[in-house]
Amino acid sequence: MKTKTDLLLELWTEARTRFTNQLEYFSETDLKKKLGTSPNSVGFLIRHIGDVELLFAKNVFGDSSVKVSAKTVIEKKDTGEWTDLEALKNYVSESFAKLKSIVEKQTDDDWETTISTKEFGTKTKAEAFGRIVSHTAHHAGQLAMIKKYG
Question: What is the mean predicted confidence (pLDDT) over 79-92?
Fold first, then answer.
């Protein structure tokens, strides 16, 4: 029988394919594209997903080894600097690996413990994990729209 951790990792990994499956179809030219008057470019959104994954590893799951300068969260706007596709792909690959590594260490009981953050208040770790799943899927949808219409 699978543990809660196994099941939640499967759910997150599958949901994240809505994002990762798009990465191979972006070019460096695409990184500057936005949708209409939307403030965020493709490059910004890719970087943002990685930033938030690293913040989750550090702040939600307590991985003190994570060093992150979440520039997209700090700036709260697209500064136009996210234009190196290979670097962005590497960043989100590393952020996934880092978050996955700490999530794999969670016990079934850990998922029911509560954490508090200024961003979304007090939640169980399972509820908080739902936020990272939906966060990535939300931005994956934005990326798909920009790729198609931007």
Answer: 97
Q: Please state, in angstroms and rounded to a whole number, the distance separating the CA atoms of residues 134 and 140.
A: 10
Q: Which domain holds residue 125?
A: 4-149
Residue 138 predicted with pLDDT over 90: yes
pTM of the model: 0.95
What is the DSSP secondary-structure string of 17-37? HHHHHHHTT--TGGGG--STT
CATH code of the domain containing 52: 1.20.120.450
Local structure of 71: helix, strand or coil:
helix
Q: What is the DSSP letter of 59?
A: I
Mean pLDDT of the chain: 95
What sign does the dihedral 98-123-137-68 (CA atoms) show? negative
